[in-house]
Structures
1.
Amino acid sequence: MRIDHIAYRVTNKDSAADFFAKAFGYKIADKFEINFEDGTCAQCYAMVPPEKVSLDDSFSSWISTNHNGEYHIPPEIFISDGSPNSIVSNWVAKRGGTGAIHHIAYQVDDVEAAMSDWVERGLAKFTTDTPIHADGLTQCFTEENPITGVVYELINRTTKGFNISNVKDLMKSSSD
């Protein structure tokens, strides 16, 4: 298991992306907008770590080793901001108008099995009864964890990148 990505909801995605680029060497790999039925939108950046040599590289090219010779695969960063009264801007406003980590996504082999296991063991409640699927991508969100205060995503990818339809469904599933 590894951290796949860390997602931030912020008031200004450009400022956040600039911070991650300057502080950690991340690069924007994808930009897209999600339009909701109520006329609001979320604007998103997917950022890749500096270990990724080019945007076409596979995950194996991201692997580096630390000083102990252990393998390390750095997570992607996902940043979103939103139009007024959108899912994203309302979430940010509830937290005092300051952006924050919305969720941490963990790569798992089988999202549905992991969901069942977590529910059975009382580890989490989920925002959907079943995972959200797209070509090469299966995902689900937990509700905010009462112990850590964090939303967790379970994800399984067989392709790289994010799927706009899945991101939209996940955002809608976790709107307050």
2.
Amino acid sequence: MFNKENKKTMAVDNSAAGSNRIVAGTKIKGEVNSGSDFRIDGEIEGTIQTSGRLVVGKTGLIKGNIICTNADIEGTVHGTLVVKSTLSLKATAVIEGDVQTDKLAIEPGAVFNVTCKMGVKSAPVGNEPAKK
């Protein structure tokens, strides 16, 4: 868009809550921090931290640590998941590692090879990892 003086202006997102997406074919190594929802259909190796909902699509692959409020997993996760509220695993999900969550929902067919600690309402969703 251009204003009256023909200068370029940046697009402004006026939505109440934004969301982020890593599409299939994208690979990221490192740390991802977000204050809003996140969908991953690509690959991430490292740490993902969000105060929103994390969705890992069927083609999504995460190798590392996840810290979030809610998570819906359809893809593959190898690592540690700290979910403050509800972790939902779809039939195509493959999870291996450690899980700490308040509530857990697993569809038939999901692979759930983890050490799991449930009922943890005070799981941190900040910069510090969960205390054991």
3.
Amino acid sequence: MIICETNRLRIRHLSNEDSEFIVKLLNEPSFIAAIGDKEVRTNQDAIKYLNDGPIATYQKFGFGLYLVELKETAEPIGMCGLLKRDNLEDADLGYSFLKQHWSMGYAKESALAVLKSANDDYGVNRVVAITKVDNLRSSGLLEKLGFSFEGMIEMYGDNNKLFGLNF
């Protein structure tokens, strides 16, 4: 299911057919360093990750993490979407892209589209985002998106920056 499109990108629901891409993305050194090791090594692991994570959140909340692909070629390049964590009151923005697609504006473009969809289609009026303290690229992107630093939060045993955005 397509959620939204931009000039260059198509943002759609993840499905089990995306398992090979998920294995590749979740094992990128940058993903593991910034987000964590999800221990997804095989297509079977990826299918479990998809069904227990993004696909389950579509069913529960209507939104979740989405696949971001190039509109022209349908090549998957990353994920962007909203997560709803038990320990956070608000939905939080998450994104990750294959390293060869960094610095091309895709994260900002997809995040803006996802945030607009969240507000327009799901009535979400506040979103937070969390980054590791040393993830300066992500912090900079969040500020460009209109998020403002709200404080520190401990998650998964690490101190992280918490940003907020009200619509």
